[in-house]
Amino acid sequence: MILRSTKNKTKFYSLENPPKITNNYKSNNNYEIIPLIIITILIIHYINNYYGSI
Fold first, then answer.
1. Long-range contacts of range 35-41, CB-CB < 8 Å, 24 or more positions apart?
2. CA pair distance 42, 49, nearest whole angstrom
3. pTM above threshold 0.70
């Protein structure tokens, strides 16, 4: 049962997503992670300044 389900998934993904789209999707994920890290650093910096002023 597991082998049949994996074969169906690979066929489904091969029809839906060509390799070029999957490579672009991986690179886009890397570019989406970097702004999240920057935003979290800004939030931590803002909280430190806010509690530092108190």
1. none
2. 11
3. no
| Other beta carbons less than 10 A from residue 17's beta carbon | 13
For the stretch 17-50, pLDDT in tens is 555 555 555 555 566 677 888 899 999 998 888 8
The alpha-helical segments, DSSP class H, found in the chain are 2-16, 19-53
Would you state the torsion angle of the CA atoms of residues 5, 8, 4, 6, taken in this order, to the nearest 10 degrees?
-50
Q: How far apart are the first and last CA of the chain?
A: 61
Which residue is it, tokens 């570019």?
31
> What is the DSSP-derived secondary structure letter of residue 17?
-
